[in-house]
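User: Could you walk me through two proteins back to back? I'd like the raw sequence and the C-alpha cells for each, with a short line separating them so I can tell where one ends and the next begins.

Assistant: Of course. Protein one, sequence then structure:
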Amino acid sequence: MRIALFDLDHTLLPHDTQALFCNYVIKHEPWRILLHGLFLPFALLRVVRLVSTATAKRAFHSYLWGMPVEKLRKYARQFAGESVDGWMYPDLRAELMRHRHQGRVTILNTASPSFYAQAIAEQWEFDHWVATEVVIGERVPWLPKLDGTNNKRAVKIGAMERKVPGVKDQSPADKKDSWGYSDSSADIPLLEYCGHRILIHPGRELKEHFAHDSLTVELKPKRPYLTKLGNMVCAVRQVLGLYPVRG
C-alpha cells in the first residue's frame, strides 16, 4: 500500500483554513463577528501559555455558537467548493492528481476540525482523511469538545494508522515509495513516515532537519503575500470577514 500524505494549512493552500472558514461564515452571517468577544480572553491566555492549543482551538469556534449542525454542514460543503478550492495551489493540485494516477492512496491528514476537513477531502477526492474530531451535536456548543486530542505532531501518525485500513501494515518497499507533503516542523514525524518528502515553503527548523536528505525537496508555489507579517494581515482580515472568498 503506497500512500501520499498531505497536510492542509499552508501546504495545499497558502492560508489557515480555520481563519478562511471564519471569513466564509461571517460573510454569510455578519452578526457572528460579535461572538469573537467570547474568544478574546482565551487568545490572550494562549499568548502567555496559560491555556493549551486545543483549548484555544475550541474557543476560536465561538463565532459558530448555536448554529444548527445541518447549516454548519451546508457551509462546510460550500466552503470546500467555493473558497478552499479556489485557493488551492495549482502545483499541489497537480501533485495530488499525479499520485492518484500512479495508484497511491491519498490521505489528507490535518489538525483542522473535522466538520469541514471531511468536506474538503471529499471536494478534492482524497481516498481518506484524518482531522481533529470536534463533537458538535444538534447545534454548535460554545466550547465544542474534541473527541480525542488535537491532531498534531505524532498524534497524526496514530490517528492515521487507526483510521485508514492497511497503513499500519505497509511494507518497507511501500514506505519507500510513499510521499509526504507539509510546510510545518510539527509534521516531521509525518514526513519521516514516507520515503519521499516535499517541503512547502519550509521554515528554518524544517529545512535543517532534512538538510542532508537527498529524497527531500522544497516546493515554493506563489503565495498572495510575501512575508510572515503579510500572512498575519491576511489572517486578521479573514477573521473579520474582510477577505475574498476565492483565490
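----
Protein two, same layout:
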Amino acid sequence: MFDRLKEDVTCVFDRDPASRNVFEILTTYPGTHALLAHRMSHWLWQRRLKWLARLTSYMSRWFTGIEIHPGATIGRRFFIDHGTGVVIGETAEVGDDVTLYHGVTLGGTSWNKGKRHPTLGNNVVVGAGAKILGPLTVGDGARVGSNAVVLKDVVANATVVGIPARQVERRESAQSAVRRETAAKIGFDAYGVTGDMPDPVVDAINSMLDHIHTTDKRLDEMTCILRRLGEHVDGVKPLEIDWLEDCRETGSVSTEKPREAAGLDGN
C-alpha cells in the first residue's frame, strides 16, 4: 500500500513541474485524492459491496470534480493533472504510467452490458478535453491531442488529433529519434507536436533539441579526452577561478577587468 502511494507521489514530481513537496501533493492535488479514493472504491466493488463502492466514488467526485467508476481498472503511476471534468467509465482499463489532463472522457457509445469503454495501454498521454469513446484500444505510447474525439483504435506510439481523431503522419528519421531521446532526457514531452507541422514554434523546439544534443555530444568527447590524459572528471564540480589572481600569476593577460580589456565598457 505504502509502496503504491510512494509511486503515486513520485510520478507527480516527474510530470508536474509545479509540484514542490510531498505534503503539498497529498493535501492539494485532486488527481491524487481521486486515485486514492478509487483504489478504495474498486476494492469494495470487487468484494460485491457495490453500493458502498458507488457512495465512495460519489463522495470523491464531490470533493475532486473527477468521476471514476468503481469498476474501472487503473494501473500504476496513473496521473491526472488538474483533473476537473475527467470521467472514466465502468469497463475502462488504464495501463501503467498513463497521464490524463482535465476534461478527458473515457466513455461508452452503447447501452448494452459488457465491455463498452476504452482500454488504454502503458505510457499513454491524453490531452485536455479529449474524448475516447467505445470499446476501442489505444496502444502503448500513443498520444491523443487536446479536444480530439477518438472513435477507433489507435496504434502504439501514434499521435492522433482532430474530430474525429486521425493519425498524424510521422516520417520517422534518425534525427527525429535523437530529438525524442533528447526531449526525454530533459523531461520534455510535446505530445501534440509533430514533425510535419509548419509551425515556427515547432521549428524552434527542434532547433533547441538539436543544439542540446550537439552540446552533450561535445561534452562527452571532451570528457573522454580528459580521461585519456589522466584527469578524474566524473562527479567533479568546476573550480571557481579568480580571474585577477590567475592573470597575475600567469602574467599573460592585462589586469584590467575583462569587459574593459575586451573594449566592451561602452567608452
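The two ends are 68 Å apart (CA to CA).

Let me know if you want the two compared in more detail.
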